[in-house]
Amino acid sequence: MKFNWISVIFISILTATPGLWAQSWRVENFESKSRGLGDYVGLYGPALVSITWFDDPTGQSLGVMRMLCNAVDGTKAAFGTDAINVIVEGDTATAWTMDVWIPKNFPSDGLVQIFGISKSNPKPVYTTYTLDKLVPGNWNTLTFDIMKHVRTNDDYDLSGGLTIGVEFVFKYGSTWAGYVYGDNVTLVGVIDPMANFQLQPPVISVQHIQDQTSPYDNSDIIYHNKITWSDLANGGTEKYHLYASKSNPVTDINASDVIKLSPANGFDRGVQIFRHWINSVDGKLDQHWYYAITAVGYDPERQEILETEPAGSATTGPITSSSAKSHVIPYIRTFQFNPDGNLDEFIQISKQFSGSVLRTEVAEGPAAEQWSTTSGDANFTLYMIMDKFHIYVGAEVFDDNPDGIGDVWKGDAIDLFIGFFNPENITEYYTQPKLEVGYAINAPTPEERIQVNGFQKNKISDVEHYLVKFQNGYVVEMKIPFYTIATASAFVPYHGAFIPLRVTVNDNDGVEDYGGGRSLMLTHGGGNTENWNAELLPQTWRWHYISDVPDQNTAVAEKTLELPAETKLLGNYPNPFNPSTTISYELAKDELVSIVIFDTRGREIKNVLNHFEKAGEHKIQWHGTNNSGHQVSTGVYFVHFRAGLTHSVQKILFAK
After folding, report:
1. Coil, strand, or helix at residue 225?
2. With b meaning 16 or more CB within 10 Å and e meaning fewer, what string describes 588-606?
3. Pairing assessment for the beta strands 434-440 and 591-599 based on DSSP bridges
4. SS3 state at 424
5. pLDDT at 13
6. What is the DSSP string of 339-403?
7. Is 422 exposed, middle or buried (0-12, 13-18, 19+ CB in 10 A)?
8. Which of 30, 219, 556, 656 has a Cα-to-Cα distance from 110 of 20 to 30 A?
């Protein structure tokens, strides 16, 4: 990470006129170090470095929220809360306000924005402040006029609360870096609902759902339990924790058979629903589930967080639940990955493992009502295969307008949400290793196509990938080593394990905007969560079964299992090439492999590979860039290949 210089931004709530503040709710004041940041977190943006509780450096209070931004890393940094209740005892908050202290050297082309996202419409609305509307070096009162946005924006429903916070926007190339301190979050126009709040057990209800099916096959039923609960009377900052057991009634949330289904901090007020997918290997086994819901709240007098006991109407079960047959991830000893835009090697394996073809289960977005399995707007077929060291992905996407934005989260892209753990062996989800990795087909360079968390580039390395675009769609192939993914570096797949997996294909036609530009989101493995942010929770991703056993009377092709007779460099194709070429080699046994590109003067240009690889045939791409990421000049280069005692050199030509 690079820092050029550091300055400080202070954020605080200051008192306005007595009439305006006669009725208000101070939601967070960050005075308790044990409570920390409460509901306020860093929400998004590559310029967001960290966010923590901190002693108030201004001396106005005991504690504040401190966020570190670095514009060198990106153009946006935002903090806020995922869901704040703005309707209290029949009254609706009129405004959300805070004051911001802008340093004198704040970038003149920077923006400060308050954003509010309604649960009924994930498109954010903004109140924007340019520097000419602010006084650098002084406190500046910022106001998000809630009622104004309700009047001017259709479908701005406040009943589910607002995701609201502050976003700092920097011009591309800015070198500004600094801290943001936040304090005393207040809603105007409502009373403090926590003043008379009493923490008590909520009421839970469960319905077993048997009518949600795959649009491609009505017999493929997506069984799940729809769990609902009621928010407590009054309240506003309390959270809700959901627990489940497949063995016994939930009376002790710390029992070894109890699974925590809620996120780390609990479900926010206003969520009131969770869909628990019921999976098994063959879909033939009924399961019997018990559930409990608890409420968690902060007691300001005792200055501690309390949680209700699971009892009475806060518990239910057993719920007899049919199980859905899990889709399959084939586990192959040696997979012949051939990144050429042709998915034959994936199709060959899928024919031998039923349930291994992944397609759309749910369509969301403005264009969802017109979508069908024969739709030309967007459709996908995706294959995922694993071996001991890699994930292989092959996808064919039909898209009538595949040209657009180069970010995964708002452009034409494939987004994979993968949990690197077996959910049968855990008691909670939020500490388990997981990753969101996407492929943005319109990124400026091939290296920038692989993105983490929807937009972060160059976060994982050594991914071999290939893209072919055509008039009405594209084909993507990826080979992702486990070792290059921090959360998966220790993951080893094995037959019989489950993994949580969700696949989303984003379609941006540049007409209607949905959550940043997507007109259509096609999802496999997530179902209809009725919670717009639930795709980030691995407990909402469907289980997929890892299997190394092909269907009866089939077998993985012999050539897939055969090992090469000798270790050798096979060459590269195309040659000459521009902009990329694929280098192929074979290993007779597991070896440490080194592939380095040199120029005609013997200087190292690119360290393409230096890793222990398993026996078999391998391919890796070189995109014509040097170790600094810059395009090389036209000319002759040499591929130096080393594996054990084998050393080969191949001459290649980069032509422009």
Report:
1. strand
2. beebebebbbebeeeeebb
3. unpaired
4. helix
5. 39
6. -SS--HHHHHHHTTSTT-EEE-SEEESTTGGG--TT-SSEEEEEEEEE-SSEEEEEEEEEES---
7. middle
8. 30
Question: Is the CB of residue 372 less than 8 Å from the CB of residue 398?
Answer: no
Distance of CA 612 to the CA centre of its chain: 29
Long-range CB contact pairs, 584-587, < 8 A, 24+: 584/617, 584/618, 584/619, 585/617, 585/618, 585/619, 585/641, 585/643, 586/616, 586/617, 586/618, 587/613, 587/614, 587/615, 587/616, 587/618, 587/643
Q: Cα separation of 573 and 521, whole Å? A: 35
DSSP state of 425: G
pLDDT of amino acid 260: 95
Q: Which residue has the tokens 């995701």?
A: 163
Phi, psi of 345 (to 5 degrees): -65, -35
Secondary structure letter of residue 559 according to DSSP: H
DSSP structure string for 517-544: T-SEEEEES----S-TTGGG-GGGSEEE
> What is the reported pTM?
0.70
Residue from 327, 443, 467 nearest 383 by CA: 327
pLDDT for 18: 42
> Which residues lie below 8 Å from residue 653, measured CB to CB, with a gap of 6+?
575, 576, 577, 635, 636, 637
Q: Are 518 and 508 in contact (CB under 8 A)?
A: yes
Distance CA 442, CA 508 (A): 11
Which parts of the chain register pLDDT below 70?
1-22, 120-122, 194-197, 234-236, 299-303, 510-518, 527-535, 552-562
Q: How far apart are CA 142 and CA 159, in angstroms?
A: 24
Q: What is the pLDDT of residue 519?
A: 79
Residue 179 near residue 54, CB atoms below 8 Å = no
- pLDDT for the residue numbered 303: 67
SS3 content of the chain, % helix, strand, coil (to 5): 5, 45, 45
At 293 the pLDDT is 97
The whole-angstrom separation of Cα 386 and Cα 334 is: 9
Q: How many residues does the chain have?
A: 656
* Cα distance between residue 172 and residue 19, in whole Å: 42
Beta strand residue intervals within 22-86, DSSP E: 24-28, 40-44, 48-55, 63-70, 76-84
